[in-house]
Amino acid sequence: MIAGRDRLSAVALMLVVSVALAAYGTTAGTPSSAYAAGNVQNAVTIVNFAFTPPTVTVPVGTTVTWTNQAPNDHTVTADNGVTFDSGHIAPGATFSFTFTAAGTFPYHCAIHTSMTAKVIVTAAISTASVSPTSGGTTTPPPTSTAGDRPSSNSTPLFALLICLAFGGLGVVAVEARRRRIVR
After folding, report:
1. Per-residue confidence at 55, pLDDT binned at 50, 70, 90?
2. Could you tell me the pTM of the whole model?
3. Which of 11, 39, 67, 98 is in Cβ range 3.0-4.6 Å of 63 for a Cys bridge?
4. What topology does CATH give the domain 40-139?
5. Which residues lie closer than 8 Å to 157 by C-beta, 6 or more apart?
């Protein structure tokens, strides 16, 4: 049995490690942290029958990429039916489009018409030249092999496993120390 003070030390160690890993797992590499750092938000996720975020503001010349994380096909279709149309985007696939003119570009999913969003394109701030052509490309989902691990949402599980390992090592170390003191 672990003594009260030593048990408290082991629990405190597990708590500190858990909080640190949980904080890392929920903030590292998220689009919101990139946006807060001053980067342009140019990624849209398709999930739960919604475009997230529903409004993206970018400067002229920016390529916006939509990623379908839903289990079914979706489209990214300009409301005017002309500016851009992804066609069907399979689960796991992406569609990219470069906006070469300022304006507001509302769009929807042609399969699920209640899914709507918009891209607001502002005039370019710099004097860099922008290609006058625009176009969209659809990228198929990556192929996977049996040995691949999922790249998203694996950090929280990894954090939990590390926490359990550190906690177990802490308990073992405290118990070993207690046994040395008793002998």
Report:
1. very high
2. 0.51
3. 98
4. Immunoglobulin-like (2.60.40)
5. none
